[in-house]
Amino acid sequence: MQLNVDRVPVDELPLGCDALLATGGLQGVAASPLGGDPGLLGIAVADYLGVWAESGLLPPPDRVGVLLTGDLYSAPGADRRGASGAVLDVWLAFAAAGCPMVYGVAGNHDEVTAAQVADLGPHVALLDGDRRSFGDITIAGISGIIGDPGRPLRRTETDFLSLVEKLTKPPVDVLLLHEGPTGDHWVTFRREFGMNGRDIAAAAAWAVETVLDSIRDRVAPWRSA
User: Fold this and answer.
1) CA–CA separation, 139 and 199 (whole Å)
2) Can you say how many angstroms the Cα of residue 206 is from the centroid of all Cα atoms in its chain?
3) Which SS3 state, helix, strand or coil, does residue 91 take?
4) Which candidate, 137, 68, 66, places its Cα nearest to that of 97?
5) 188-191, long-range: CB < 8 A, 24+ apart
6) Which residues have a Cβ under 8 Å from the Cβ of 144 and sit 6 or more positions away?
7) 125: part of which helix (H) or strand (E)?
8) Residue of 179, 181, 166, 174 lying closest to 198 (CA atoms)
């Protein structure tokens, strides 16, 4: 298995960052370049930031902001589809790497709380109906998916759209989603809430192009898919 990492140069970045890494759906295991047994893929990606910086592919980790869009867990053998589990260590790995900003949302397979993440640093935040500012940009996020609200990290589409409306007035620079409306609902979503491509969604098949379109003119994502 190969993890692709795309670089997209842009004209403007948030103050305090020379690059942004936008990633999600890291449902796999991999060995860290620092050694040890294979662990969650997101931890390995965080550990590789220093390696990539040393090779000139990235700025130093303390100049790389991170945007996480959820589903960061994998069964230990990466052999069970749809497994759910604890992902706090992935957030910790990016914070420990020295990244100045780590904002993100939880996927429906992630077991982590906003309080746990908040303990990792002042600019480390799990968003779910929240807005945060870093440098000169504002980032909002909605965790989970549309579905049965009786299950974890799910809300009705009506509640989801109401929350989007709340978060985007006034407009934000980036809206982080794990999964949003699809099909005709997606067209309506973008039109009614004036997103114009400012969203990042990782769980659906269209996520890759959404990431690139959404912040190409605003920030520089280092996107993995």
Assistant:
1) 10
2) 15
3) helix
4) 66
5) 189/161, 189/164
6) 105, 106, 107, 108, 128, 152, 153, 154, 155, 178, 179
7) strand 124-126
8) 174
Q: Report how far residue 105's alpha carbon sits from residue 68's, in angstroms, rounded to the nearest whole number.
A: 6
Task: Tell me the H-state helices in the chain.
Answer: 41-54, 88-96, 114-118, 157-167, 184-193, 207-215
Write the CA distances from 110 to 17, 92, 107, 117, integer angstroms: 27, 14, 5, 13
CA 120, distance to chain mean position in Å, is 16
Model-level pTM?
0.82
The first and second tokens of residue 158, run together, are 């009506």
The mean pLDDT values, 10 residues at a time, for the chain of 225 residues are 74 87 91 92 96 94 95 87 93 98 95 97 96 91 92 91 87 83 57 49 34 36 33
- Work out the angle between the directed axes of helices 88-96 and 41-54 (0-180°, nearest 10): 10
